[in-house]
Amino acid sequence: MVHIKDSYLNILVCKMAVYLNPCLSLPINLAENEFEDLIQKLKDWTIMHGGGMRSKKQYSNDSLTVVPFTLLPSVFPRSEFQKAVSIQPALNELTHYVSNDHAFLYSCLEKTIEVDEFTRNLFNLYETVRSEGFAQRISLGMLRSDFMQEKEASGYYIKQVEMNTIASGFGWLGIVSGDIHRPQKGHTMCILLMCGALQSRCLGLLRSDYLLDVCNSSSVKQVELNTIASSFGGLTSTAPTHRFFFQQMGLLDKLKMLPENKALQGLCSGIIKAWELFNDKDSVILIIIENQSMNVCDQRFHEFEIARQKPELNVIRKNLTQIANEAKLSDTKDLIVQGKKVAVVYFRAGYTPDHYHSEAEWSARLMIERSKAIKCPNIQYHLAGTKKVQQALATPGMLERFIKDTKKSTDIRKMFTGLYALDLNEDGDKAVKMALDCPERFVLKPQREGGGNNLYGEDIRHKLTSCMNSKERSAWILMDKINPPVQQNYLIRPNQDFKKNSSLCDVVSELGIFGIILCDGDNILINEQVGHMMRSKLTSCNEGGVHAGDGVLDSPFLI
Ligand code: ADP
Ligand code: MG
Ligand code: MG
């Protein structure tokens, strides 16, 4: 049985109890071999539907392992989900305005670039192309704003973890993880109800075929449910009797609890719109990848989706080293790869020093930025996504300088959590003292992307003590640690023994909302929210990167 430790979960599950009948308890009451079969079947379904990644340990271009995922979706308050969705266009706009404000970017980063070589290289590149005059006025942002919930006096509210402006991944895998949990056309429905204390329960939906597996060994109620549900050909069935039963069970409503997700389609339509604006039917899309792309499914499905929406459009994948060796800039500043003019460059790499093995990769990045190709992101957008900019926007009046609409700026500001600069001055000293007094309350962040770079707890103390009187402090920002509500779930990982896959864990979730913004100078042509992704991690883990190995794919179950 679930022990309701957290009042958040308590509230949620009590709400759920209004809708649902008890069915299945957590831990899932299955015989070991049945549970093992269920997990294997789900893993097979997932990898066979594009939920794969390359193995870090045994990298091969010819094989995939299944992405890690949660067995059940995670409960997320509908109102907070909708808030995150509806604020995305304002966040897109904010990022765009920030990226075009040289004075602001400079004031945010001037101290940081003195001490942080990577950010300095990016900034120098920006200054170079700016002084030469930007060759392309059109910009394309494919952004992902990440949120966690934080408890406040009157409930849980979303707080922004960060804004990603480069290589915002999981537009595809976010959909896959929803589909693992979502019953689909042609499948019967499987319902797992997790009973808790206080007669309260949460609901998870699993793919149809597993219903039988689950129900074989279960209670009378589950068998009843099985009898009803298994008689259906699919949830979308139009047969009146089916609808009647679903209505009886209140299940039609439940579908709305797993929100539709069209992130991939939306993101790719942004790339295609940019290509159309470039207005050269022979031009191509260039995707910049790492030397070894672990997240190959997520990337390739973007490519496949572009091909689906626009079959005549060619996509080329290259890493920065290959660009340095193979690409050229024409006299008219066209970027030429494999003899083709590049209309749009979509960066899925280039966000960490690891992607720049030598000067060659930097010269490749410079060549791209100098070119007429539409960059996603351009260097300004890349810099606008630094943690330093996020921290500066949170200082009083700064966000409001960019977002004039008071309702929008108030809504955005409510999602900010405490962010502090650590420069060598009085305010920086205060922040350092605060962190040294109670490091558990904070996260210490450098200007890096891709997960695994932040410091927590005692490591914060060590770091800050070691650079107490040094300018190096300006390379970092301090952020209030967000404490999201704890839920229970099963974390299914590849090559993990059954015992671990089948042990119920305490997890917390992070929601990412995707946005696209296509502009011609200051003229905003497209500004939309296009979908979501969710990741969960053990409460004992500080970071939740899926490829870093701690996070697993999840999907929101809205109540
Ligand atoms: P990155 O750009 O490397 O992804 P993030 O700011 O997203 O950097 O931090 C990485 C991870 O660290 C997040 O996914 C989250 O799990 C954790 N994290 C970051 N900021 C906070 C915070 N303020 N409170 C709690 N956890 C955080
Ligand atoms: Mg990031
Ligand atoms: Mg992140």
UniProtKB/TrEMBL annotation:
GO terms for molecular function: ATP binding; glutathione binding; glutathione synthase activity; magnesium ion binding. It comes from the Eukaryota. Coiled coil: none annotated. The gene is LOC112682755. Homodimer. Mg(2+) binds at residues 224, 226, 449. This is Glutathione synthetase. ATP binds at residues 224, 387, 445-454, 456, 479-482, 510, 537, 543. Pathway: Sulfur metabolism; glutathione biosynthesis; glutathione from L-cysteine and L-glutamate: step 2/2. Its EC number is 6.3.2.3. Binds 1 Mg(2+) ion per subunit. Keywords: ATP-binding, Glutathione biosynthesis, Ligase, Magnesium, Metal-binding, Nucleotide-binding. The keyword RNA-binding does not apply. Catalyzes the production of glutathione from gamma-glutamylcysteine and glycine in an ATP-dependent manner. Glutathione (gamma-glutamylcysteinylglycine, GSH) is the most abundant intracellular thiol in living aerobic cells and is required for numerous processes including the protection of cells against oxidative damage, amino acid transport, the detoxification of foreign compounds, the maintenance of protein sulfhydryl groups in a reduced state and acts as a cofactor for a number of enzymes. Participates in ophthalmate biosynthesis in hepatocytes. Gene3D superfamilies: 3.30.1490.50, 3.30.1490.80, ATP-grasp fold, B domain, Glutathione synthase, substrate-binding domain superfamily, eukaryotic, Glutathione Synthetase, Chain A, domain 3. The lineage of its organism: Eukaryota, Metazoa, Ecdysozoa, Arthropoda, Hexapoda. Its cofactor is Mg(2+). It catalyses: gamma-L-glutamyl-(2S)-2-aminobutanoate + glycine + ATP = ophthalmate + ADP + phosphate + H(+); gamma-L-glutamyl-L-cysteine + glycine + ATP = glutathione + ADP + phosphate + H(+). It is an enzyme of class 6 (ligase). Residues 284-384 form the Glutathione synthase substrate-binding domain. Substrate binds at residues 207, 299, 535. Belongs to the eukaryotic GSH synthase family.
